[in-house]
Amino acid sequence: MSADRRNDRRHQGREAALQMLYQWELGGGTPPEVAASFWTTHGAETDLSDQGRAFAEALLAGTVAALAAIDPLIQDACEHWRLSRLALIDRLILRIAVYELLHEAETPAPVVIDEAIELARTFGGDDAVRFVNGVLDGIRKKLEADEP
């Protein structure tokens, strides 16, 4: 990953959101509880501004709130795979990216997909990058086709 990417506050916010979503998935709790716990435990490790933290928390809360819309899109794009069978980190990366595709219109789809690929490269397994790219490209095409 380039130094520019590591220093990008929105990318760092996405990384924090992914880690919080992972914590939520494993331990439960509400998004505000998870965020408070995460910042208490890991806040010193990040140099995110208040704006970066707010972005991470918005991604966490928005993704959790929109799972009923997000998961069917992922499931449809994952031919021959049940959502529950996906690697947890891959599923969470996909969820954040699909949330952004659906609800963060100011971020262009190619940027969302590129960011998800970078998260997969950092946190996922060997095949995660190709898998995440393929699934998100399929979802992007479906969403674009569904636009009026």
What do you see in this structure?
This protein has helices spanning 3-7, 9-27, 31-42, 50-65, 67-77, 88-103, 109-123, 128-146. The chain is an all-alpha fold. It is globular and about 40 Å long. Helix content is 76%, strand content 0%. Helix 4 crosses helix 6, helix 5 (67-77) crosses helix 6 (88-103) and helix 7 (109-123) packs antiparallel against helix 8 (128-146). The chain has a single domain (3-146), classed as NusB-like (N-utilizing Substance Protein B Homolog, Chain A), CATH 1.10.940. Mean pLDDT is 90; it is low at 1-7.
Assign the CATH class.
Mainly Alpha
Within CATH, the superfamily carries the name NusB-like
Q: Helicity level, as a percent range?
A: over 70%
Q: Architecture in CATH? A: Orthogonal Bundle
Q: What does the radius of gyration come to?
A: 15 Å
Q: Oligomeric form of this entry?
A: single chain
**Biggest beta sheet summary:** none
| Overall pLDDT metric | 90
Element-level helix/strand string: HHHHHHHH
**Domains, number:** 1
Cα distance, first to last residue? 37 Å
Give the beta-strand count: 0
Which strand-content bin applies to the residues? under 5%
